[in-house]
Amino acid sequence: MQSKKLGEQTYIFSHPLPILSTGSVVGKKEGAGPLGSSFDEIIADPLYGEKSWELGESKMVRRAMDLALTKAKLTFADLDLMFGGDLLNQLIAVNLAARHVPVPFFGLFGACSTFAEALGLAGIALDGGFAAKVLVSASSHYQTAERQFRYPTELGIQRKQTAHRTVTGAAAAIIGTSGGGPALTGITVGKVIDAGVKDINDMGAAMAPAAVDTIERHFSDTGRKSDYYDLIVTGDLGSIGKSLAQDMLAEAGYEIKNNYADCGVLIYAPEQDMHAGGSGCACSATVFSGYFYSQLITAELQRILLVSTGALLSPTSFQQGETIPAIAHAVSIEKV
User: Fold this and answer.
1) Statement to judge: residues 102 and 231 lie in one domain
2) Distance in angstroms between the alpha carbons of the first and the last residue of the chain
3) How far apart are CA 87 and CA 114, in angstroms?
4) What residues are paired with 107 via a beta bridge?
5) Which residue, of 116, 150, 176, is where some domain finishes?
6) Of 28, 141, 115, 164, nearest to 327 (Cα)?
7) Which domain holds residue 80?
8) CA geometry: angle 256, 259, 260, nearest 5 deg
9) Are residues 219 and 132 in the same domain?
10) pLDDT, tens digit, for every residue of 163-218?
11) Domain count, the chain
12) Which helix or strand (DSSP H or E) is residue 289 part of?
């Protein structure tokens, strides 16, 4: 059997796997940003009519799935597998949503890298002949993440300028083995990189080295140059992490300034004063599912490399004084 592995960490699918539809739901702050018109729905109430932030986030996951299914004219009965995750302990946002979804389910935790991880695993399952249609999802919520990782928002703690705002939102996508539209063509699986950062209010510095490592490995494995892609998009490095990654890649010989963007920078406007920018599983998930997916549909973009980034800490590891490991997974998405 011919290997689909290319180089050390990259897997190229034997044929393009079309992303049949996406669904995106975001909160009020995200809807007020420059990408607001690209999202399917904007939720004014962060509780989303529920009794807790966590249940509100879970409801967003369900709504994003329903939107993706409706657009694809499919039902849950048409799906073979579901991959999904969030930032919360025991993945409660997606787990509580999955109890309403009659589809075999894999729960994933890759922190903010979860969306690309889910896309890549869906591609492996589809290309391996284990499924014909797969649903993926990712979500996060400002209030739930702050309560778990830092301080409950009710305390009104002033955030540092290096801090990110966790994106409130959820996104879902359906990938198949046939059909039209933008398609998954490969994945570069990231390695855990620990740059020694301990500050939970500086996720960009923690994650940038992991993004750089995966992007360098992708180019090394594939032999591609940076201009192969119309856009290289990191997940949520924010303004500080994006600048670090760009400088590190330039030192390594990869000039990507003209075709590099970061979802955490794009999702909020400077005047919204979100400090370093956006973060969270929903950051790359909603920006891709809303903004970039539509540009691939209209052929404004032909090829993008989506590099979702994640800081793999927990409240326990932080309290015990551990440094913050990070990871980045890259998926190639091309208009075919």
Assistant:
1) no
2) 26
3) 9
4) 84
5) 176
6) 115
7) 5-176
8) 70
9) no
10) 778 999 999 999 999 988 899 999 999 999 999 999 888 889 999 999 999 999 99
11) 2
12) none
